[in-house]
Design a protein that fits this description.
Elements: H1 5-21, H2 23-32, H3 38-77
Length: 78
């Protein structure tokens, strides 16, 4: 199947938004829809992108907390 770039992009954007605001609906849609087309593939990619951004954000926040803790421990030693 040839990828329709415009439909993929629309699906990606919609998938990203659904992953952000209605993740359970998106999961149900992607689980039950067959056959796959450019729009659905875009939705799945948008969901994955949102999840990657969330994970990166959480890791960044964790690193900030670790650094703050290290700084506090260094001050207490001095």
């Amino acid at each position: 199947m040839e990828l329709d770039e415009k439909q993929f992009t629309i699906g990606f954007n919609n998938g990203f938004l659904l992953a952000r605001f209605e993740p359970h609906i998106l999961i149900a849609l992607l689980r039950d829809i067959q056959p796959l087309n450019s729009y659905i593939k875009g939705m799945a990619s948008g969901q994955k992108e949102y999840e990657l951004m969330q994970t990166k954000s959480q890791l960044d926040e964790l690193e900030l907390l670790r650094q703050k803790n290290r700084d506090q421990m260094d001050r207490e030693r001095d």
